[in-house]
From TrEMBL:
GO terms for molecular function: nucleic acid binding; RNA-DNA hybrid ribonuclease activity. This is RNase H type-1 domain-containing protein. The lineage of its organism: Eukaryota, Viridiplantae, Streptophyta, Embryophyta, Tracheophyta. Residues 25-133 form the RNase H type-1 domain. Pfam families: RVT_3. InterPro entries: RNase_H-like_dom_plant, RNase_H-like_EbsB-rel, RNaseH-like_sf, RNaseH_domain, RNaseH_sf.
C-alpha cells in the first residue's frame, strides 16, 4: 500500500488503468443535532462518477472520527461489491498520516485506523492520498 500526503489531481488516463477506480470519501459531523453524514464517490479512469453514496448516522463524533468512520464504511462497501480500487482520497490529512504510519494506541480512533489498514490490505497496490479542500 502506497500512502502519500501529496495532493491528487482529478483522475486521468495516466493515473488509473481502465479497469480500476478511485474512491473519494468525506464526512461531516453536526453535534448540535447528533447527526453525522458520510459520503463517497467512485470514479473511473476518465474521471466519470460511476457511483456515489451517502448515509446519515446518529451520534456525536469529532470530525476526525467521522472521517475515519466514513472511510471504514465506504471501503467495506467497495470490498463487498468488488470494486477494484486503485486510489483512495480523503481531505483529512491527520487521518491519512495515521493510516500511513499504522498508528496505534488504546483509543477508538486507533481501532478505526486498524480497520482501515486491514481493509486496504485487500487492495495491495492501492494509493491513499490526502487532498486539500
Amino acid at each position: 500500500m502506497d500512502v502519500t500526503q501529496a495532493g491528487f489531481s482529478p483522475v486521468d488516463g495516466n493515473t488509473l488503468a481502465p479497469s480500476y477506480y478511485k474512491l473519494s470519501v468525506d464526512a461531516v459531523a453536526d453535534n448540535s443535532r447528533s447527526k453525522i453524514g458520510i459520503g463517497a464517490t467512485v470514479r473511473n479512469f476518465s474521471g466519470e462518477a460511476v457511483v456515489a453514496l451517502s448515509s446519515p448516522l446518529n451520534g456525536n463524533l469529532s470530525p476526525l472520527l467521522a472521517e475515519a468512520k466514513a472511510l471504514v464504511s465506504t471501503l467495506n462497501w467497495c470490498t463487498a461489491v468488488k470494486f477494484p480500487l486503485s486510489v483512495v482520497e480523503s481531505d483529512y490529512k491527520v487521518l491519512i498520516g495515521k493510516v500511513k504510519h499504522k498508528w496505534k494506541d488504546k483509543s477508538a480512533l486507533s481501532d478505526l485506523v486498524s480497520q482501515i489498514v486491514s481493509i486496504l490490505s485487500n487492495f495491495p497496490t492501492i494509493i491513499v492520498h490526502h487532498v486539500s479542500r
